Amino acid sequence: MKSILGAISDKNSVKAMLEALDAKHAEMIALVQEWSAINSGSRNLDGLKVMEAEIVSAFAPLGAEVEFIELGDGEIVNNQGEVKIVPNGRSIRIYKHPQANRRVLMTGHTDTVFPIDSDFQTSRWLDDNTLNGPGVADMKGGIIVMLYALLAFEDGPFAGTIGWEVILSPDEETGSLKSGPLLMERARSADIGLTYEPALADGTLAGARKGSGNYTVVVRGKATHAGREFHQGRNAVVALSKIIVDLSELTDGRPELTVNPAVINGGVAPNIVPDMAWCRFNVRLKAAEDAEWFQNQLDAIINKWNSEDGYTAELHGGINRPPKDLSDANLKLMDLIKACGDDLGIAINYVATGGCCEGNNLAAAGLPNVDTLGVRGGAIHSSDEFVLVDSFVERAKLSALILTAFAAGQLDEVINLKNQKPEK
Ligand SMILES: [Zn+2]
Fold first, then answer.
1. Confidence class for position 423, pLDDT limits 50, 70, 90
2. pLDDT (0 to 100) of residue 354
3. Long-range contacts at 19-26 (CB < 8 A, ≥ 24 apart)
4. Interval between CA 370 and ligand 1 midpoint (Å)
5. Strands (E), 198-324
6. Cα of 220 to ligand 1 centre, how many Å?
7. Distance between Cα 241 and ligand 1 center (Å)
8. Res. 414 pLDDT band, cuts 50 70 90
9. CA 357–ligand 1 middle distance (angstroms)
């Protein structure tokens, strides 16, 4: 692959732009420590508001338009099997030069998996290069990489030549149920997508991703005394158990499709026939067309119990992340980002994963994207979450060079390939 930098006529200015990032290391580390100490669990709307204000002030030097987009309420099935409304935070949209010919969508999330009452609330150093803390990698660190890449780019020789749009979601960690449609809508008016989930600790990025869906099945029967009128009862726990066996047998019904019945609840006491039971389960799938197959199988399993005397079964949830399979345009973008890495001495490799993120939603809207352009880190979603702090400047340079290559027309091949394909 040819050098990206080598093909840019004003390469000295680009080099100077990249080198200027070296001086930003301490600022970036200070900011991630500050943001890590703000609890912004997906359900902590007050904490998300504080992050909102932090983001607006950090992005202010870019002089971009800022907009907040209300996402509406979500639904959860509670432990009593009842549907409850839960409010969501807002998405933040920051954009500049929307009329430009080349447009990039940059996405991330301000929420973390750590609720307000979590024990894990602040960062601490594990060694000189390793900072442990909530969101340091996933993905407050990533937002900082995105920010400094944009600041560098808008200070560089191609400033003002591309349209960029940042969308930060408040509900990624609960599956982007409400921000997903917004991401897909914005994806349709962009040429490429860059998402700032963490890379693996060794710098490996994610390639193809499986799709994912979360569901709750609630079964209701009839409660009776287990001794006096057992046969008049309808045992919801037994019905649910049979449903769970049927669900688990869908694993491998399509290549690499897995079903994971994960959380169950039901019954009150051993001498009462239980009248309610529920199970939460997750499906992972590799091909977009498997979604319809899976839904048909689910409907058959559920409907069987609705035609059974004295029982009802309800299904909640659905597939929220379609599979991200790699289009020709996406593969080309990955190649060109690898070439950007080569110029910076950063080895870029890609690995397929069963995990999901916003990159799935962008791909489903036909947008070629690379979704792990944030910091290098690991142990995310646990109190061992860490970031390797030497990756801040390194990854900001990578993104600043990607933006520069895009502005210089070096990613036009991606756009051409994308436009050859009808949108999904
Ligand atoms: Zn994340």
1. low
2. 87
3. 20/152, 20/155, 21/148, 21/152, 21/393, 21/396, 21/397, 21/400, 22/393, 24/148, 24/392, 24/393, 24/396, 25/389, 25/392, 25/393
4. 14
5. 205-209, 211-220, 258-266, 276-285, 312-321
6. 36
7. 33
8. very high
9. 7
Question: What is the architecture, at CATH level 2, of domain 211-321?
Answer: 2-Layer Sandwich (3.30)
Ligand 1 geometric centre to CA of 238 (Å) = 37
CA separation for the pair 196, 173 (Å, rounded)? 14
The pLDDT assigned to 421 comes to 55
Q: Tens of pLDDT along 236-247?
A: 999 999 999 999
Contacting residues for 217 by C-beta, under 8 A, at least 6 apart: 240, 243, 247, 278, 279, 281, 302, 313, 314, 315, 316
Distance from the CA of 97 to the center of ligand 1, in angstroms? 27
Q: What is the mean pLDDT of the chain?
A: 96
Give the residue-averaged pLDDT of 245-250: 98
- Ligand 1 centre to CA of 199 (Å) is 10
With respect to CATH, is domain 5-75+87-210+323-420 assigned 3.40.50.2300? no
Q: Calculate mean pLDDT across residues 62-74.
A: 96
Provide the residue ranges of all domains of the chain, joining segments of one domain with +.
5-75+87-210+323-420, 211-321
User: Residue 109 Cα, ligand 1 centroid: separation in angstroms?
Assistant: 7
Question: If phi over 0 gives left and psi between -120 and 50 gives alpha, with beta otherwise, what is residue 63?
Answer: left
Query: What was the pLDDT predicted at 156?
Result: 96
pLDDT of residue 178: 93
Q: Tell me the pTM.
A: 0.93
CA of 361 to the centre of ligand 1 (A): 14
